[in-house]
Amino acid sequence: MDRLVAMEVFVSVVDAGSQSAAALRLGLSRPVVSRYLAELEAWAGARLMHRTTRRLSLTAAGNEVLAKCRQLLDLAQDIRVAVPAPDDAPQGLLRITASSSFGQAQLTQAVTDFVMCNPGVAVDLVLLDRAVHLVDERIDLAIRITNDLDPNLIARRLTVCRSVVCASPAYSKAHGALRRVEDLAGHNCLTHSYYGKTLWEFAVDGTPVSAAVSGNISANDSNALVMAAQRGAGVAMLPTFVAAPLIRSGELVAILPKALPRELSVYAVYSSRKHMSSALRAMLDFLVERFPPEPLWDAAIAPPPSARKPVVKGRVVKR
Predict the structure, then answer these.
(1) What is the reported pTM?
(2) Phi and psi for 159 in degrees, rounded to 5?
(3) The domain spanning residue 16 has which CATH number?
(4) H-state helical runs in the chain
(5) How far is CA 221 from the centre of its chain?
(6) CATH at residue 275
(7) Sites in the chain below the pLDDT cut of 70
(8) Widest CA span of the chain, in angstroms?
């Protein structure tokens, strides 16, 4: 816990009269404000506030702690004024999380390029195929692929995540060409555990079309499906940030080019604007430039944006 921040949150809640008002003033989400209050109470070893649906009131311990917090915050401000401002170079440690597939295919190289240009920054890269709780797990920045964001978090859209149906040249030659979405029913489909496990959805000439799919391999990570598809095990729906270089090299073949899978957005997600470090701010700006709205990896395989329909709302997925 950053105790100084927790004290500032506590004082702001008292001055603003509610957690919601303090959250707005500090640029934090309400759950983050509640967590700071709970952690400050745990550290102090006493309940500091009585919380009801209508009002907040200080306990006897809360009154004493409030006065001490104001003194410490004033002292901290005096120290900041007394110490000369550092140079503008970003510095510090960033903990960044993403799915394994996006991390390995795109993010690791981007992070490497960033730290080589910013030697004062260190990055702890956490690649996991599950949603990470930013506050509990001390994460500064999460890359999430979704159309349904957590409203308690702050997000900056980076780019779009498209998918492509593909197979190895050997599989395509052995099993024949797929001409319609309905043809998928006759093929061994390699499916993602969290996305399209039994149903793949498309738009064909703007019309929604879906196909029930099944197969003998399912995985919770796109890289595993890539390996299976390369070996000729079946047909896979893969994110283009993974599949594009393999299609360009001829290791995989894009099929059903007129059937467009649903698009998702790629976001950089964080918990607070108020206490953003120079390293986090610089990383966000870098990622916005690195991942433009039209992803570079789609250049050789994606239809023009004008041929695509608006994004349909969906759930968070780990691709």
Answers:
(1) 0.67
(2) -155, -165
(3) 1.10.10.10
(4) 3-16, 19-26, 30-44, 60-82, 100-102, 108-117, 169-175, 222-230, 240-249, 278-290
(5) 16
(6) 3.40.190.10
(7) 1, 52-54, 80-87, 300-319
(8) 78
